[in-house]
Design brief:
Elements lengths: L5 H11 L29 E3 L6 E3 L1 E3 L1 H4 L4 H13 L4 E2 L9 H10 L7 E6 L7 H15 L4 E6 L5 H7 L5 H10 L3 E7 L4 H9 L6 E5 L2 H4 L4 H12 L2 E5 L7 H4 L5 H9 L5 E4 L4 H12 L6 H17 L8 H7 L1 H5 L3
Parallel strand pairs: 3-4, 3-10, 4-5, 5-6, 6-7, 7-8, 8-9, 9-10
Antiparallel strand pairs: 1-2
Length: about 350
């Protein structure tokens, strides 16, 4: 997954001050100003989608954060993303009570053929096949499309959920039915609380097309998703979709634990298909797209050095709040929404 033409990208990295040893200095990268858009910047690199013979952008535009922007800014971000080569768009049925899907649907209207569109069903503890299919119809209506490129079972967090998903009238039946109906091209699942749950899903031998999981230098020290789940996805040729590179809420960056370039470069250096990037302004989008466009794999020794530097942050249990989502979901819906 190295860059095809690394020299221009190395030059661009040097312009940003994040190449070589400087990448591990821990300094933050200020967001690029709107007028600083580099005209000659290569498009965001593309990667193969698991076992399938096509590619998608290595950076994914996150629908939850997109809804945090104004409508006008979000529309500009969608146009800018496509101009920068970001064609993979993320969303979920429950983001902002459906308003995230509605916004994205309006923003991509007339551009649907340029977008690899993903959203998620949110049956969790209460749903079955019928409720999942109802969610699909609602998502399609909000997104103003007749099909999804990728539909994922969202936030699988318990062994009980695994059993019900694969049980009679469960979510897996809905995923299969939607694909047979031509409303969904590919199917997957997501989760961010327990790697054993991911492994239980994967142990079923079901031919998922994708799986979304936390991938970061902080996460790697916990010997969880990066060390245990990611290799299994590669083995099964399932497209790994990274998330939580900034901890889910950006706290590691604000606290000086890691910089944005370090975080993105580390995550993109892992064997993932794409990294979901939560940005809520054009400036943030350009910053992250610039890093992804200029990507050159971080040498292994630098990855290990960054992991070692992040070890105290991992042990503090402050920077993986998404692991607490289940308890937040049961007691504080507003807090839970921050970590999906």
């Amino acid at each position: 997954m190295n860059a095809e033409n690394p020299q221009p990208r190395r030059q661009f990295l040097k312009q940003l001050g994040i190449a070589g040893a400087g990448l591990l200095a821990g300094s933050s990268l200020a967001p690029l100003r709107a007028q600083d858009k580099p005209a000659a910047l290569p498009p965001v690199q593309r990667r193969k989608f698991g076992r399938h013979d096509f590619t998608v952008s290595s950076l994914v535009l996150g629908g939850h954060a997109l809804r945090l922007a104004s409508d006008d800014e979000a529309f500009r971000m969608v146009d800018e993303a496509l101009d920068l080569g970001v064609n993979f768009f993320d969303n979920s049925w429950d983001y902002h009570g459906g308003r995230a899907e509605d916004l994205m649907g309006r923003a991509i209207e007339g551009k649907r053929d340029k977008v690899f569109l993903m959203t998620k069903l949110c049956t969790h503890d209460a749903g079955d096949k019928d409720s999942a299919m109802k969610m699909l119809e609602e998502s399609l209506k909000r997104l103003r499309t007749d099909h999804l490129d990728l539909w994922q079972l969202h936030a699988v967090a318990t062994m009980d959920q695994v059993g019900r998903a694969f049980g009679p009238n469960g979510a897996i039946e809905a995923l299969e039915l939607a694909r047979k109906q031509g409303k969904v091209r590919f199917i997957g699942f997501t989760g961010h609380t327990d790697p054993d749950v991911h492994l239980a899903m994967l142990a079923k031998g079901y031919p998922f097309d994708s799986c979304q999981l936390p991938v970061s230098a902080i996460e790697a020290n916990s010997n969880a998703f990066v060390r245990r789940v990611l290799p299994e996805l590669v083995k099964q040729r399932i497209a790994p979709l990274g998330m939580k590179s900034l901890g889910g809420d950006g706290a590691p960056v604000r606290d000086g634990v890691i910089s944005v370039p370090e975080a993105l470069m580390y995550s993109l250096s892992q064997p993932i298909t794409a990294l979901v990037s939560g940005v809520n302004s054009v400036a943030q989008l350009r910053q992250n797209a610039g890093i992804a466009a200029a990507f050159v794999a971080m040498p292994k020794e630098q990855q290990l050095a960054l992991e070692a530097r992040c070890q105290p942050a991992t042990e503090s249990n402050k920077y993986q709040p998404y692991r607490k989502w289940m308890s937040y979901r049961d007691g504080d819906a507003a807090m839970a929404a921050r970590y999906v």
